[in-house]
């Protein structure tokens, strides 16, 4: 079941669950991830 | 033996693929834990574990499933270690994003979060993997380390629980928007 918007024959909560999930997926990565990204950018073992 | 150039190219490919799944890891971790800050810590730790173990990953296979399993195992380890509560924190409870449900009228995403956190942990994990993350039953069972039949049973029970809580069976929705402390 790929994340998607509403479908005609599913309960309301099912679309809500995907919207909740996608609302986080669509968020920009927070600043706290910058150090992680730098470690991976540097190519070293974090 | 691969030379350094080949290693660097492989590392770069791995890094890019890992970065691409971070938003999905955040969503999965948020759903599992109900705690945004804790979820982000889980994602960062899981990403570091994945990076450290990158030589065990086979390029072209399922990075998302591989990293979800790492995150899930790390989450369970953290729970055992710290015995954290899975109650919603204040930040999650204050999320009041409103969406239009397809057939049932307005539904608050915070209600969805609330209901999700009321599920038994293994059912919450199952419905997140299948219903939100889009994994197949086979993939989800592998991530969770259980038989496919068990995964199907957990998803079915989670769906029943969520339907009761969110789609109108009043006996299980006594205080759907009650404020919580701690």
Model description:
- The complex is a heterodimer of chains A (46) and B (182).
- With 46 residues, chain A is mainly α.
- Chain A has a domain at 12-42.
- Helix content of chain A is 50%, strand content 0%.
- The longest helix of chain A is centred in the middle third of the chain and has 14 residues, at 12-25.
- Chain A is rod-shaped, with a radius of gyration of 17 Å.
- Chain A starts with 11 loop residues before the first helix and ends with a helix.
- Chain B folds into 2 domains: 4-82, Orthogonal Bundle (Rna Polymerase Sigma Factor, Chain: A), CATH 1.10.1740; 90-172, Arc Repressor Mutant, subunit A, CATH 1.10.10.
- In chain B, helix 1 (4-33) packs antiparallel against helix 2, helix 1 (4-33) packs across helix 3 and helix 7 (137-144) crosses helix 8.
- The chains are: A mainly alpha (46), B mainly alpha (182).
- Chain A: It holds the Pfam family NepR.
- Chain A: Residues 12-41 form the Anti-sigma factor NepR domain.
- Chain A: It comes from Novosphingobium mathurense.
């Amino acid at each position: 079941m790929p994340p998607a918007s509403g479908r005609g024959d599913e309960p309301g909560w099912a679309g809500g669950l995907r919207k909740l999930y996608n609302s986080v997926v669509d968020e920009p990565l927070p600043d706290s991830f910058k150090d992680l990204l730098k470690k991976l950018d540097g190519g070293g073992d974090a | 033996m691969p030379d350094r150039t080949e290693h660097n190219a492989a590392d770069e490919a791995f890094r890019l693929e890992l970065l691409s799944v971070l938003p999905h890891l955040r969503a999965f971790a948020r759903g599992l834990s109900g705690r945004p800050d804790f979820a982000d810590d889980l994602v960062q730790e899981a990403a570091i574990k994945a990076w450290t173990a990158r030589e065990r990953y086979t390029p072209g296979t399922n990075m998302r499933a591989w990293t979800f399993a790492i995150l899930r195992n790390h989450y369970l380890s953290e729970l055992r270690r710290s015995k954290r509560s899975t109650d919603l924190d204040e930040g999650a409870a204050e999320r009041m994003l409103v969406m239009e449900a397809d057939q049932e009228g307005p539904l608050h995403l915070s209600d969805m979060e609330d209901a999700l956190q009321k599920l038994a942990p293994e059912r919450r994990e199952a419905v997140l993997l299948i219903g939100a993350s889009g994994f197949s039953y086979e993939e989800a069972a592998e991530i969770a380390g259980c038989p496919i039949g068990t995964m199907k049973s957990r998803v079915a029970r989670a769906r029943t629980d969520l339907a009761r809580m969110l789609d109108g069976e009043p006996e299980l929705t006594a205080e759907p928007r009650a404020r919580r402390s701690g």
